[in-house]
């Protein structure tokens, strides 16, 4: 169960960071008129098509003692970044970034522009309009971004293995634990952990679909 709790902790940290980082990126992509913004959109979506081992390899190189991130981390904290929980968080943030940003973009773009114009006419600035108009109307997208980034991080294997290795209590997540048990022919334990992960994944995805269907949400339209 230690591996499961470590995975839950990792997923919670990554989902929180992605929400904080993803909102300004998604806002800019949703409302910017810059013609070249498709380049940033491509960078954001790149982890969707990039093999996890490729992203994990380059993340590991960057976090190594000779990499830029690794050198900076050693200078600040006195130890390496690769094969640590902090390294797992950083790599998982990169890999799960589109799962947080894309639902936010879609939700921000769905807000009626007339409401934004009305807010501007009433004297509200961009920041106040975001907090008072855009964000409340985009809550389903925010929930979707949190749940998808959490679920995606929870079941990640390739990037986690490349960057974190298999250190018990430090970087051994539930997906790696399942792999280890299969390798050791412990199919009963592997099945128990896999079934538990399956139920958790089903539960969090049910939240996404419930929110998108306006089910069990406080902002659902009343009939």
Describe the structure.
- The chain is mainly alpha-helical.
- The protein has a single domain (2-31, 50-212), classed as MetI-like fold, CATH 1.10.3720.
- 76% of the residues lie in helices and 0% in strands.
- The radius of gyration is 20 Å and the shape is globular.
Summed up, what is this model?
The protein has helices spanning 2-31, 37-49, 52-63, 68-77, 85-109, 113-121, 126-137, 139-154, 158-164, 174-183, 187-212.
Q: Give me the secondary-structure category.
A: mainly alpha
Helix content: over 70%
CATH-defined superfamily: MetI-like
Mean pLDDT comes to 88
CATH C-level name: Mainly Alpha
Strands, total number: 0
Largest sheet: none
- Annotated CATH architecture: Orthogonal Bundle
Order of helices and strands: HHHHHHHHHHH
Unreliable parts:
215-223
Number of structural units classed as domains:
1
